[in-house]
Amino acid sequence: MSKTALALATASGVLTAGVAATATAAPTTEPTSTPAATPRPTASPGVSAARTPAQTKAAAVAARKRELKILPGGDHRLPLNKFRVGAGWGDSRGPHAGRNHKGLDFAAPTGAPIYSVTDGKVILARSYYGFGNLVIVKTPTGKRVLYGHQSHIAVKKGQTVRPGTLIGKVGSTGYSTGPHLHFETRTAKDRAFNPLKFLSASKSGLQQRSNKLAKLR
After folding, report:
1. What is the pTM of this model?
2. Over the stretch 129-188, which tens digit does the pLDDT of each residue have?
3. Mean of the pLDDT values across residues 187-210?
4. pLDDT, tens only, 66-125
5. Closest alpha carbon to 200 in 78, 108, 114
6. Could you write out the three-class secondary structure of the chain?
7. Nearest residue to 204 via CA among 64, 62, 66, 88
């Protein structure tokens, strides 16, 4: 072999060895990395998480209660959540003997919350003769709604109310023989008329609503 060939062979061997060494030094497997933790799915804004059976039932009961409290027509609501319908319009028996009852009585425990049945403005909120603690609400049409015999008044004269606003609490102040709400309605000219017409309901219908609400407690 000539010197030139030997030199080329030697150089080739060195190059080959260098390539082989580099190949040998390279890792035999690709490096592995620890997988990142999979993020937990989150509810999109405005989308509530799935309800449990108990939550679903509670929501259904709450919706049914709201439905029962709103009277036919949708403008008025019950003045109480639990009551027994007593003396009605024109009743002249018992404590009303000798005169015609000008309202509708709702018997309820002392302290039971009384709610406004309609929109309006409070034009009187104080003790007033036989009515005891009385609240009068003037509706947008000028009609008056009276809530009598309260143990506590929760609103002030001039206050604006809406259906469901707390008016006060049931009592037996004034000319009363027991705790109840005397509910009375009057025209814009201050003439009393049957509250059942204002509420678009019957005594039996009101009592049925109260009975159904009691069962949902």
Report:
1. 0.74
2. 999 999 999 999 999 999 999 999 999 999 999 999 999 999 999 999 999 999 999 999
3. 95
4. 999 999 888 899 999 999 998 887 676 656 545 678 999 999 999 999 999 999 999 999
5. 78
6. CCHHHHHHHHHHHHHHHHHHHHHHHCCCCCCCCCCCCCCCCCCCCCCCCCCCHHHHHHHHHHHHHHHHHECCCCCCECCCCCCEECCCCCCCCHHHCCCCCCCEEEECCCCCEEECCCCEEEEEEEECHHHCEEEEEECCCCCEEEEEEECEECCCCCCEECCCCEEEECECCCCCCCCEEEEEEECCCCCEECHHHHHCCCHHHHHHHHHHHHHCC
7. 88
Domains of the chain: 57-215 (2.70.70.10)
Residues 66 and 32: their CA atoms lie apart, in Å, by 61
Q: Which amino acid is at 58?
A: A
At 195, the amino acid letter reads: P
Q: How many CB atoms lie within 10 A of CB 181?
A: 27
Q: How many residues does the chain have?
A: 217
Model confidence at 42, pLDDT cuts 50, 70, 90, reads low
- Which residues, other chains included, contact 98 with Cβ-Cβ below 8 Å and sequence gap of 6+? 92
Structure tokens, 202: 């019957």
CA atoms of 50 and 69, how far apart (whole Å): 28
**117, 163 contact by CB (below 8 A):** yes
